[in-house]
């Protein structure tokens, strides 16, 4: 059987043709086998080739035994292993540098005058047990028919077979080179179409490309894992496993010098070079040559592909250049892949960050912003472990810190260090971030948060490696920037409130001299608005603004509008309040501002502060939302209750112990309602929150139940109480509390 | 297959939810209904937050309940005491 896998068919045909020609020329039977004795072509001989085709397996056993004895032969030799005097020419067909080699077998030669001796030799007539009778007899016939060869003829035949071996060597080398290149190109092609979503594509790709390369005995793939620090993450070759995890630094040894130069490098005859110790210590038996291919992208070195050879490798020039080019391309491919991976990781976080910016823009509390920065930074880094925000809350040296993943006292010590470095001078930093290695928390990325022309806070996030720090620094920078914007908004708002309140107070004080009654009335109206907020009618922020409008209500709205960035809304409220007061009809399709409406109600109460209960029925309703009027009536009722109780206390100190706040009064009313209508404990809790003006959503959050459940409770409460809405329910509670 | 960016977005939404409702105690099922996301992805996001110590997790699987772990807050750290 002829081996068909080792040779490309065209090459096989050429070799066969050549072999047949030389068989005719030398009148020898010629066979070509591989190093295991398998025939690579059909035996060539006009008469006896058929014997070997029919008995190929027996021949293979015989030839392999012979080849085992011929290891390392460089020239054509004569062998007579079967019967002394019956000789074969055996010529090696070298394919160096490949480990594969072929052998040409040419025979048989019987020297002149030795035929009789050969025929009478015992081996000629005694069949070996492993040889079939057919084959043995055919061989005997062949010997009988073979002519004796003179020494001159033997020399001629030997030369010709040697030339045949050389010719075949050239043909096969060329063919193998081509086949090798084809195989490598196929491997490269396969690699480049490997599914990008595979678990470890880079390692797999590297393995495929490097394992089929002739360039070295061992290959390695190192990635940058810190500034100037590289770690071997993958190695290929029998002695390579111990290289995995090995660390080297820029400028250190062969590998370190290669990454520093950022160019392909090659060192040969390095057996005695001390830089080889890096490999010897990792179990590599011997180092003759080291080749390095830095993985670069845009002047940045991401890693290194390297190969180590134990001995000199005679790779033909073109083949060598191809391997070099291919591995360089591989490095470029890996660099692209790593860049893509890095960008992908960042993109995965930028999208959520944009979503986050929409959600946090309305936060108006500095501590809430700090909580978000700490928690969100942990969401954004690859391996979250610790995060801290240090914020200078005042100019008297006090700082506030919010931290996660940091234990006291290390957290506080670090916070003080950060505050000293960034917040003491509070100058604007030169860079948007800093890397700090001298901390108890691995590596810290520190982002100064600047607003109002000073560094007022610092976001610091722990990262496990510098590499990770470099990869996520941009995304954290974006978060810190977002923090700056939101903190500035909080700061501006505080400043605005502070300035507005100060100016409003000054304007208010200015009327005390010429109109004490007006001064007192406006102060009372402001107080009522604040009480309305405490009661739950409006938020504190709304109350602050409406309160300021009350204090400045005598002022010309246009004059107030002339204050840059101040009092714009207050001016509108005052204008609306005056229109309501003048009983001006509101334009169709329009309504007065809620602030103006509340001012009108607050002034109505302030003007009759000596008899609140009467004013309940006399509250202005023209131009004012009916719901707001109802709400204010309830507020006045509760306020009256409170004042009544306080009066009792003032008039009779002995009963002070029984005095209760408005909440106490509400509580009494609530208890009475619960008792009267048989409300369950949960219904009582819900009603209590309804009375405190909580919305269904707020009640759900407070009681840890869904809004749907709140609605169910309310329906049951209304049914039991016989009321149709929450306003009636609240009124019932207050009626009970004052009744 | 849910995109990684969607999981991170959900992580952030969950974080904000618990920051805004610091006393809330929720299961992955409950929170997924509130946020209109699948229970499976919500559970994945919540478990990541628990790994980061942003949330505290009690129990396993569908019965696991999550609550917010407030960060360590120190107000009025006196800078003058720094050595």
From TrEMBL, chain A:
SUPFAM superfamilies to which the protein is assigned, alphabetical: C-terminal effector domain of the bipartite response regulators (SSF46894), GAF domain-like (SSF55781)
The entry's keywords: DNA-binding, Transcription, Transcription regulation
Record carries keyword Disulfide bond: no
Domain HTH luxR-type as annotated: residue spans: 672-737
Family annotation (InterPro entries): GAF-like_dom_sf (IPR029016), Sig_transdc_resp-reg_C-effctor (IPR016032), Tscrpt_reg_LuxR_C (IPR000792), WH-like_DNA-bd_sf (IPR036388)
Cross-referenced CDD domains: LuxR_C_like
Transmembrane segments: none
Record-given protein name: DNA-binding CsgD family transcriptional regulator
Organism: Paenibacillus hunanensis
From TrEMBL, chain B:
Species of provenance: Paenibacillus hunanensis
Protein's name according to its UniProt entry: Transcriptional regulator
């Amino acid at each position: 059987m002829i081996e068909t896998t080792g040779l490309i068919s065209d090459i096989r045909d050429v070799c066969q043709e050549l072999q047949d020609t030389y068989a005719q020329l030398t009148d020898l039977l010629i066979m070509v086998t591989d190093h295991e004795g398998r025939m690579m072509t059909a035996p060539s001989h006009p008469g006896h080739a058929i014997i070997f085709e029919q008995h190929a397996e027996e021949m293979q056993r015989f030839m392999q035994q012979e080849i085992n004895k011929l290891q390392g032969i460089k020239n054509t030799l004569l062998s007579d292993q079967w019967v002394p005097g019956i000789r074969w020419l055996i010529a090696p067909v070298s394919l160096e540098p490949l480990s594969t080699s072929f052998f040409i077998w040419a025979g048989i030669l019987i020297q002149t005058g030795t035929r009789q001796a050969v025929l009478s030799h015992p081996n000629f007539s005694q069949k070996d047990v492993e040889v079939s009778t057919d084959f043995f007899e055919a061989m005997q016939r062949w010997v009988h028919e073979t002519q004796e060869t003179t020494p001159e003829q033997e020399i001629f035949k030997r030369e010709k077979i040697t030339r045949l071996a050389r010719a075949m060597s050239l043909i096969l080398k060329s063919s193998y080179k081509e086949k090798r290149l084809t195989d490598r190109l196929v491997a490269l092609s396969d690699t480049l179409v490997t599914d990008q979503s595979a678990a470890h594509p880079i390692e797999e790709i590297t393995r495929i490309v490097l394992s089929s390369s002739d360039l070295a005995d061992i290959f390695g793939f190192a990635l940058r894992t810190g500034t100037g620090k590289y770690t071997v993450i993958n190695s290929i070759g029998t002695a390579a496993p111990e290289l995995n995890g090995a660390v080297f630094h820029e400028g250190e040894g062969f590998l370190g010098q290669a990454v520093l130069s950022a160019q392909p490098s090659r060192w040969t005859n390095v057996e005695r070079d001390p830089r080889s110790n890096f490999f010897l210590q990792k179990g590599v038996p011997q180092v003759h040559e080291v080749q390095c291919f830095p993985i670069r992208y845009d002047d940045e070195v991401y890693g290194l592909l390297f190969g180590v050879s134990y001995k000199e490798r005679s790779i033909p020039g073109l083949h060598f250049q191809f391997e070099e080019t291919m591995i360089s391309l591989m490095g470029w491919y890996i660099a692209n892949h790593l860049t893509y991976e890095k960008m992908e990781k960042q993109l995965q976080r930028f999208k959520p960050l944009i979503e986050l910016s929409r959600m946090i823009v309305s936060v108006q509390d500095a501590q809430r912003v700090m909580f978000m920065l700490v928690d969100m930074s942990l969401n954004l880094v690859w391996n979250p472990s610790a995060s801290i925000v240090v914020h200078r809350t005042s100019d008297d040296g006090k700082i506030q810190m919010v931290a996660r993943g940091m234990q006291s006292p290390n957290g506080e010590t670090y916070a003080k260090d950060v505050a000293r470095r960034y917040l003491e001078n509070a100058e604007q930093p030169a860079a948007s971030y800093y890397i700090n290695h001298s901390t108890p928390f691995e590596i810290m990325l520190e982002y100064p948060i600047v607003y109002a022309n000073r560094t007022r806070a610092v976001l610091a996030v722990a990262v496990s490696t510098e590499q990770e720090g470099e990869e996520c620094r941009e995304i954290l920078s974006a978060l810190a920037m977002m923090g700056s914007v939101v903190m500035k908004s909080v700061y501006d708002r505080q400043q605005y409130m502070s300035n507005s309140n100060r100016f409003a107070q000054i304007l208010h004080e200015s009327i005390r001299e010429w109109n004490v009654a007006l001064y007192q009335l406006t102060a009372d109206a402001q107080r009522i608005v604040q009480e309305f907020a405490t009661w739950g009618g409006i938020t504190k922020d709304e109350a602050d603004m409406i309160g300021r409008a009350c204090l400045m209500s005598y002022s010309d709205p246009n004059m107030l509008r002339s204050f840059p960035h101040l009092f714009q809304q207050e001016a509108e409220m005052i204008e609306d309040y005056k229109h309501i007061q003048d009983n001006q009809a509101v334009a169709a399709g329009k309504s007065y501002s809620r602030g103006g409406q509340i001012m009108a109600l607050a002034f109505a109460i302030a003007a009759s502060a000596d008899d609140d209960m009467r004013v309940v029925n006399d509250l202005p309703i023209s131009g004012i939302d009916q719901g707001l009027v109802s709400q204010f009536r309830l507020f006045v009722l509760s306020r009256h209750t409170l004042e009544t109780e306080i009066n009792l206390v003032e008039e009779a100190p002995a009963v002070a112990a029984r005095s209760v706040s408005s909440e106490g009064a509400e509580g009494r009313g609530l208890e009475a309602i619960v008792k009267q209508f048989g409300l369950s404990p949960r219904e009582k809790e819900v009603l209590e929150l309804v009375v405190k003006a909580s919305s269904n959503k707020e009640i759900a959050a407070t009681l840890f139940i869904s809004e749907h459940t709140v609605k169910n409770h309310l329906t049951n409460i209304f049914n039991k109480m016989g009321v149709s809405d929450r306003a009636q329910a609240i009124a019932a509670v207050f009626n009970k509390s004052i009744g | 297959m849910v995109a990684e960016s969607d999981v991170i977005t959900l992580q952030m939404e969950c974080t904000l939810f618990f920051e805004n409702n610091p006393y809330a105690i929720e299961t992955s099922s409950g929170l997924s209904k509130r946020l209109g996301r699948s229970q499976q992805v919500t559970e994945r996001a919540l478990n990541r937050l628990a790994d980061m110590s942003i949330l505290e997790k009690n129990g396993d699987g569908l019965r696991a309940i999550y609550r917010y772990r407030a960060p360590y807050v120190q107000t009025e750290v006196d800078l003058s005491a720094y050595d």
